[in-house]
């Protein structure tokens, strides 16, 4: 991996002092690294946020998308290797939660060191699969689902040119998320803290609680009022939880 490769994938909006806890943030389907700019700003300088930019969007729009979660996890893990000189926590929302789980598995399998903490958000546990086919719908049907979840910036949805540019990445990511199948294997050993909305059409509270089955480490879950993008309304509470957990990990 070259420095250029790392710069394409890893966006460090607010570099932190040496030794600060590191949090990798993985976007949702159709999302980009900039989604986590407010998180980086809020946690800086106590926590260094590394936000991942997937191929096929924004300044990487001319690159081919990665269309499976396992392959995307392998590529993300590869670019994160230089950052593993100190403990690394992972936050992922929606598709990013499934991706974060697979990256955490690779970290343990390839390095023998678990993630400092895994924070899945807005996604059912890997072992709780649904038969979903939104990625097979026409453009209108796909966009209807995106609008229902309110996951993409309204300015993009209202701009035909921006929308045409974003649609391939959105469809690709929906395909990756909906066709992802959990492969049984060793449980994680890191702490897992789950965030979920009580009215999320993509994840029930019981499906979110099932993340507990995927780790031998400490487990916690926070249920917030709201749908799939509950985190937009409850950012302060989520940031407090992240900050407290990362501080404990750094001290420990």
Return the string of H and E elements.
HEEHEHEHEHHHEHEH
Rounded to an integer in angstroms, the radius of gyration calculated over CA atoms is 17 Å
In percent, how helical is the residue content? 25-40%
Q: How many independent structural domains?
A: 1
Task: Kindly estimate the percentage of residues that lie in beta strands according to DSSP.
Answer: 5-15%
Give the CATH architecture.
3-Layer(aba) Sandwich
Task: Work out the number of β strands.
Answer: 7
Q: What's the total helix number?
A: 9
In short:
Residues 24-246 form the Thioesterase TesA-like domain. GO terms for molecular function: hydrolase activity. The protein is α/β, with parallel strands linked by helices and 252 residues long.
Outline the structure in words.
With 252 residues, the chain is α/β, with parallel strands linked by helices. The chain has one domain: Alpha/Beta hydrolase fold, catalytic domain (Rossmann fold, 3-Layer(aba) Sandwich), CATH 3.40.50.1820. Helix content is 40%, strand content 13%. The protein has nine helices and seven strands. It has helices at residues 3-9, 37-43, 69-80, 95-111, 139-149, 154-157, 160-179, 205-209, 235-251; strands at 10-11, 22-26, 48-52, 88-93, 118-121, 192-197, 219-224. Strands 1-3-2-4-5-6-7 form a seven-stranded mixed β-sheet, sandwiched between helices. Strand 6, helix 8 and strand 7 form a beta-alpha-beta unit. Helix 3 packs across helix 4. The radius of gyration is 17 Å and the shape is globular. The relative contact order is 0.16. It comes from Micromonospora sagamiensis. Keywords: Hydrolase. Residues 24-246 form the Thioesterase TesA-like domain.
């Amino acid at each position: 991996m070259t420095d250029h490769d790392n710069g394409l994938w890893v966006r460090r909006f607010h570099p932190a002092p040496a030794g600060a806890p590191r949090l990798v943030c993985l976007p949702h389907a159709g999302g980009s690294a900039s989604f986590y700019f407010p998180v980086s700003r809020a946690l800086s300088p106590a926590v260094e946020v590394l936000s991942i930019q997937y191929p096929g969007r924004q300044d990487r729009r001319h690159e081919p998308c990665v269309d499976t979660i396992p392959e995307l996890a392998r590529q993300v893990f590869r670019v994160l290797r230089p950052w593993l000189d100190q403990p690394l926590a992972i936050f992922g929302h929606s598709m990013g939660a499934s991706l974060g789980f697979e990256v955490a598995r690779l970290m343990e399998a390839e390095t023998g060191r678990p993630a400092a903490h895994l924070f899945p958000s807005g996604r059912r546990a890997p072992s709780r699969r649904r038969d979903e086919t939104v990625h097979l719908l026409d453009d209108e049907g796909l966009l209807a689902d995106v609008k229902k979840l309110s996951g993409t910036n309204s300015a993009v949805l209202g701009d035909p040119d921006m929308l045409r540019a974003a649609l391939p990445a959105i469809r690709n990511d929906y395909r990756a998320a909906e066709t992802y199948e959990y492969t049984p294997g060793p449980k994680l050993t890191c702490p897992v803290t789950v965030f979920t909305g009580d009215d999320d059409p993509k994840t029930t509270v019981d499906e979110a609680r099932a993340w507990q089955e995927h780790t031998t480490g400490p487990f916690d879950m926070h249920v917030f009022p709201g749908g799939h993008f509950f985190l937009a309304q409850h950012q302060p509470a989520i940031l407090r939880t992240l900050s407290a957990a990362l501080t404990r990990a750094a001290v420990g």
